[in-house]
Design a protein that fits this description.
Strand content of chain A: 25-35%
Structural class of chain B: alpha+beta
Shape of chain A: globular
Strand order of the largest sheet of chain A: 6-7-8-3-9-10
Structural class of chain A: alpha/beta
Number of helices of chain A: 7
Largest interface: A-B, 24 and 16 residues
Oligomer: heterodimer
Shape of chain B: elongated
Radius of gyration of chain B: 31 Å
Strand content of chain B: 5-15%
Strand order of the largest sheet of chain B: 2-3-1-4
Distance between the termini of chain A: 28 Å
Amino acid sequence: MIVCHGVTKRFDPNVLALDNISFQIDKGEFVFIVGASGSGKSTLVRLLLKEMEPTRGTIIVGGRDIGRLRPSRVSQLRRNIGCVFQDFKLLPNRSAAENVAYALNVQGESAQNIRRKVPEVLSMVGLVDKMDSLPNQLSGGEQQRVSIARAFVNHPPLLVCDEPTGNLDPDTSVGIMQVLYSINRTGTTILMVTHDREMVDKMRRRVIALEEGKISRDERRGGYSSQ
Amino acid sequence: MTRFRLLVSEALHSIRANLSTTVAAMMTVFIGMFLLGICIALGSWMVSWSSHTKKEIVVNVYFCAQDTCDNGPATNKQKAQTLVRINQISAQGLIKKFKYISKEEAWSNMKRTDPELTAGLTANPLPDAYKITPTRGEDAGKIATQLRSPSLPPGVQDVRYNKKVSERVLKVAKVIEISFALMVLILLAASTALIANTIRLSIFSRRREIEVMKLVGATNWFVRLPFMLEGLICGFGGAVLAVILLSITKVVAMPALHLDFNAGSDVHAWPFALTSMLMVLTGLVLGAIGTGITLRRFLKV
């Protein structure tokens, strides 16, 4: 699903965010990216979304070298990558259903399909009864579920989550992880950047640890810290 | 169709969210376009008037008559020599047309145009002459100088053109044309800058939507189009308001103020419909340029 080969990202001569990292993530995997602040986790996410270009190296997503992608095709790439962020990134003046429908609208989905898909996905994240609520009428956990619903409504093969539980209490975080786990079981690859030690240790999935821009550890069933 | 509706609704949403700035920009376009309309009407009238006046500038070559020169009236040979010189100047493209007017013809013309003036005269005091119409009014002086140099042709008493009037008219016309062009340019630049600024504020106030749009895979054009529409609506709305005010001014204010610009049958401003179309088109172009500049600078998609 994702192949990174010798990826380096240098912001200026003195700031090296990623230093020659290589890894491969297969279809259907659930992978945690862990590391201290400034270790290059978010830079990796931005590179995968082609928000910036690597200084060196190749990134292949879904079999496509995204470095060779024309700017006009970037939207197609992003339609195949669902994104979930710590700050939810919901539109405050639109209801939960409208926030989810927005993604489909933007992608040119028909009104009929939108009417069918939105309740389906909101029901999957357990928010079918709050479809008409505005984001400020929802709790943090509920807002993150709307954000996940929006990311998954189009059933993308890859979901990239940048600290999705960073703003949530432990109980709510468990609920969010359950939603992500159920999405993973449908065959969707999930790459999750996190600081949530407890969650990583409990889930026992593949862990890629970054340290000062380098991969310090890549374990199949790892914990937050090395054993 | 759904996408088009979404684009329009995004543009309207953007205008609503940013209403005061949009209205301010629209009002500036409105004032700018109204002044542009007045400039076009007055300017085109002035240009028409100045070209009408320029057309009236002629160079007269007066031949010697019985009493006006020491050597007596001009001979046919001398007239032919003068004609050769006129033809030489004409070959340079300075002369539009010229005509020989005999003293009899001049006399009958004068009797027709100024009967009071000719009533008291017993004999014809007018000389034979060539009436030369320059290609451009500005060339009258050049033609007269060439005819006079190195000296007046033999048999020619004088070469005259309505120098003072023509030079003043040409100077005024040039000043009017330049100031008209400058004013329009300044107004267009100000309107474009204001639309650009409105769109910049709009981009700022909608940065979250833009971020989400990009995140969920909107194409570049999908992100840009609502702003383009907003800019076009700004330009179009302002221009339409200006056309309405200009037509009210034309129909109500001008007759009430007894403003009459009648200066000859061939002097007229551009038709109102053409001016209105130009204003609306300019409004749209300004909207597109203003938005384009801002999108290029501030919306990296």
